[in-house]
Amino acid sequence: MNRRIQVATGLMWLFLPLTAMRYWLAWDRLPARLATHFDAGGRPNGWMTRQDALTFGLGMTVLFLLILTVVAYALRRQKASDAGSWAVLGLIALVVVMIYQGNSSIIGYNLTGQPISIFTPLLLLPAAFILIAIYLGANRGGALPEAPLIAEETHSSPIIGLLLLIPLVVELAVFANTPNSQARWIALPLGLFFVGFAAFAWSGFQYRFSHEGLEIRSLGVRLRSIPAAEIRDYCVAGWRLWRGYGIRGVGRCRAYVWGNKVVHIKTTQGDVFLGHNDPERIIGDLNTMRQLVH
After folding, report:
1. Are 228 and 191 in contact (CB under 8 A)?
2. Per-residue pLDDT for 207 more than 70?
3. pTM
4. Which of 53, 61, 199, 257 could cysteine-pair with 48, CB 3.0–4.6 Å?
5. CATH code of the domain occupying 149-155+204-293
């Protein structure tokens, strides 16, 4: 399976020469100054020279291909080949495809005046939602047997939730002020996307402890179950901003974090990080759970 990850990553790098060839084939027919940015109505409102457009297009492609390669390398190191790992690679690959489609649309507009179409990225949105669902469902384990709760903790970030509403306001403004039906169609699912993430941050993660183990939930959905017998060790740890917030990690490592304090739990299935403003409370709940088990 790791071999398949390597092959898939290598194939994605073909988008770099394909982008360069797309520009090269049209180079002599392109104007010296290209329209490269468009408003919600599809009208150009930003321009670049041919060389700058090529450099920017190739640069964005290289950036996400490097991210894809780094993630793939980490997965191979961890010997991870679960559906969640493939979903993460698929999400990054979708971005690469969208960048290529964007470059092709820019070339087409400047060559023939062909309107910029947003239906291609719109069609990719369902694929993104499916991949996210696969990622969330991977490695979550079976549901724990019913048992009396020892404790239930919540870890959320209303501040991040409010910040995520800012792009929603922008999307609503686009929806209300543009007569372009295509822009309206793409603003609606994107708006729902931001609403979901804002609600996700506001509601946060719920940690449910019983003598059977630990269950992690959000918005009423079970994200992960960790049987008590699988927990080997745990301690308080820090969390760096660059590692990001929300649900993080691929392969055998997964984090549920909305802040910079976490409890690092080592299990037989990998590492789990639980964010909490008072991580000592999580340690206390885990200690109680361990005492009841033994």
Report:
1. no
2. yes
3. 0.76
4. 53
5. 2.30.29.30
